[in-house]
Amino acid sequence: MSNPAKYSLNSRQVAEATQAWLEKRGVTKLQIAELVMLLQKSYFPELTMEECVHNVEAVLSKREVQNAVLTGIQLDILAEEGKLLTPLQEMIVNDEGLYGCDEILALSIVNVYGSIGLTNFGYIDKLKPGVLVKLNEKNGEHTHTFLDDIVGAIAASASSRIAHRKQAEREGETTPPLD
Q1: Contact residues for 22 (Cβ-Cβ < 8 A; gap 6+)
Q2: Pairwise CA distance, residues 99 & 166, whole Å
Q3: What would the pLDDT profile of 11-22 be if each residue is shown by its tens digit?
Q4: Which residue of 36, 68, 126, 146 has the smallest Cβ count within 10 Å?
Q5: pTM value?
Q6: 97-126 pLDDT, tens digit each
């Protein structure tokens, strides 16, 4: 058993691992930002892709988000490799409809950003646009049972962050909410 007093993990390492694992699994910040744009363009026609990417990066900078990303990706990989025990192995590799733990993990990301994030997550999870189409395919070599929901949650959270900040701008607030 490890000694908790000696445990040390650099936050930068966790952030870098999160980014690296997303990229290894075929997901870029730009692809997530495209989902954000889809969710917010009708509310904020002046919204730029640069703003969307910035807000995705802000969401990804949070440790609890990084933890969810790393956990979900690792579970997907273990399922791909057949390293989980039955029946969990079959539930994850087949993205079983009654298995909701993938959505629950994604909701841990959304909960950081409030009810707008929650409603955006439900919408994007049902619609499955952009990169989510590819991640949701069940005929590829990879399992993305957790990752498709995690990517949707990151996009929904970035969308919520934008909505709150734009409202604060309209109201002349100088302190942005939901950092």
Answers
A1: 28, 29, 69, 73
A2: 36
A3: 999 999 999 999
A4: 126
A5: 0.94
A6: 999 999 999 999 999 999 999 999 999 999
